[in-house]
Each structure stands twice: as structure tokens, then as C-alpha cells.
Write a sequence for this structure.
């Protein structure tokens, strides 16, 4: 938690106030990544497929979700 607080520029107490446990922090992170990825995929699917950023979101979504899932498993075990 200290490393996350330091990297994000937050005070440790502020981070722990919002995310009392590492599991809660990882779950929030995974939820955020999943939401951003879903949004990117939705936008890409609605476009005329001329924007490579949407294609990138489609291609990397499984990797992000897998990483978040692995981090969550480590945090709660």
C-alpha cells in the first residue's frame, strides 16, 4: 500500500481511508480497468473501424482483465 500511495502521490492515510485493504484496492482497480475497456470496446464497435485505438482496446482487453484477476487473487490469498 505504501508503494501505491507513493506512486500515486497520495498520502498513505488517504489511500487507506478509501481502500482499507489491499483486496479492496485491487478490486476497485480491476473494476475501473474493466469499465474503461468495456467503454473502449463499445465505442470501437459503434465506429466505422477507422480508429486503431479501439482495435488496440479490443486486443489488449483480455490481458488487462487477466492481470487484474491475477492481482486480485494474490491480494486476497
Amino acid at each position: 500500500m505504501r508503494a501505491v500511495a507513493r506512486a500515486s502521490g497520495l498520502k498513505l492515510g488517504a489511500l487507506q481511508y478509501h481502500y482499507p485493504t489491499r483486496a479492496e484496492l485491487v478490486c476497485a482497480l480491476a473494476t475501473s480497468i474493466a469499465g474503461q475497456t468495456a467503454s473502449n470496446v463499445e465505442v470501437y464497435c459503434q465506429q466505422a473501424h477507422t480508429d486503431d485505438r479501439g482495435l488496440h482496446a479490443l486486443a489488449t482487453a483480455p490481458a488487462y482483465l487477466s492481470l487484474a484477476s491475477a492481482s486480485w487473487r494474490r491480494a486476497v490469498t
